[in-house]
Design brief:
single chain; alpha/beta; Rossmann fold; Dihydrodipicolinate Reductase, domain 2; 3 domains; 9-stranded mixed β-sheet; 3-stranded parallel β-sheet; 13 helices; 14 strands
Length: 385
């Protein structure tokens, strides 16, 4: 790492210290960084969703290869623009569809290719967002309001639509989707609840979303909210003005808290996806129904079960050892894949390039169009966009 851009001084300083980056390599914004001559071989683009398109295109035009956070962009036109600029510039770009590199999904791909369960007939995937994660990221946090980020299916679950589309070799033809913001609404606030939890909420004892319960203890959520190291009283003071201190029923959130998507692929293959906030744990669960067998996988538990109908209903169970890093070690393998492609100067080595990401993103955009319009949407409708 030779340079870093971040408007948060503490975050920028932490990265600079970790990698020995001097003041000349520290920038307040990506715009300031990309106004300089090319500083490195690779640009790691972790800007907010709505800033992806301009920052990505500028970086590629400056000669950077790139790791681009998902989603690629917040509308199909910008996703396609990124892909077009990549092709024009010849840069090597990987989009962070990390699940493609998760050892469980990699193994499932191998099982499907082996023919053990025959042809895929249908797929079901559940993404259990987990209730506290939903409240932190998609109610109080950066992705709770669509005007500041994007819609829920794209922000959180383009991972899932991408992995489903990767498991079916045929093209997706049409989609339907339903979902709403059902619970995190003002009319569901406990009687007498204040705007900020710490201002004396009468439901503190029973509400799982009370801000002090989530952010006073040291841990992941406190660190993610930028409050690490604060004692209890300091945390309480910060929560009096932080969006993370707001009552979850009194924010400006407008993204859905549950959604289902149904997909039909060429040849009659079907798939369903469910995203829900209302689980006690987070994780993904997958079922694949084949003509000759069945797969059931608990992705975050790192297990796969396979039944083979034509082998006496033979059952095999696979457990995977813990792996380092996020997304089951997939993040590290994603980086390694990008580096291999860059060293070989071969864009075909990138598993999740901009064209493939555009293909699976189009399913996400069609699904959201279906949810909003209350109808089945043909993927062909997006072709001219």
């Amino acid at each position: 790492m030779v340079a870093v851009a971040d408007p948060r001084v503490s975050a920028r300083s932490e990265v600079a210290e970790m990698h020995g980056i001097g003041t000349e390599g520290q920038f307040d914004t990506w715009q300031e960084m990309l106004s300089q001559p090319r500083l490195a071989d690779v640009f790691i683009n972790t800007t907010m969703d709505r800033e992806h398109v301009e920052s990505a295109c500028k970086a590629m035009e400056l000669g950077y290869d790139m790791l681009l956070e998902k989603p690629s962009a917040t509308c199909i036109e910008d996703v396609n623009r990124i892909d077009a600029v990549r092709k024009k510039t010849g840069r090597i770009v990987s989009v962070c569809h990390s699940l493609r590199y998760h050892v469980v999904y990699e193994t499932i791909q191998e099982i499907l290719a082996s023919g053990k369960i025959g042809d895929v007939v249908s797929i079901d995937q559940l993404e259990a967002v987990e209730h506290i994660h939903q409240s932190h990221s998609f109610v109080r946090g950066n992705w709770g309001n669509e005007s500041r980020s994007t819609f829920m299916l794209l922000a959180k679950s383009c991972h899932d639509i991408d992995i489903i589309a990767s498991l079916v070799p045929q093209a997706c033809l049409r989609v339907s989707s339903f979902g709403t913001l059902s619970y995190f609404r003002e009319e569901n606030a406990p009687a007498g609840a204040p705007t900020y939890c710490v201002d004396g909420c009468p439901a503190e004892a029973t509400c799982p979303y009370h801000a002090m319960k989530i952010y006073a203890p040291e841990g992941f959520w406190k660190r993610h909210a930028g409050m690490s190291g604060l004692d209890r009283e300091q945390t309480r003071d910060r929560l009096k003005e932080s969006p993370y201190g707001l009552c979850v029923f009194k924010t400006d959130n407008d993204v859905v808290d549950h959604q289902v998507v149904s997909m039909e692929f060429e040849g009659g293959v079907t798939a369903t996806f469910t995203m829900t906030a209302f689980t006690p744990w987070g994780g993904r669960y997958l079922r694949i129904h084949g003509t000759k067998g069945y797969i059931e996988a608990k992705i975050d538990h790192r297990t796969i079960d396979v039944w083979e109908f034509w082998a006496g209903n033979r059952h095999s169970h696979i457990d995977f050892a813990a792996d380092k890093g996020s997304h089951g070690g997939g993040d590290g393998r994603l980086i390694a894949n990008l580096i291999d492609a860059i060293q070989a100067r071969d864009v075909s080595l990138v598993r999740t390039g901009t064209s493939e990401s555009a293909r699976t993103h189009s399913i996400v955009f069609a699904a959201e169009q279906s949810r909003r319009q209350g109808r089945v949407v043909e993927l062909s409708e997006l072709a001219d966009r």
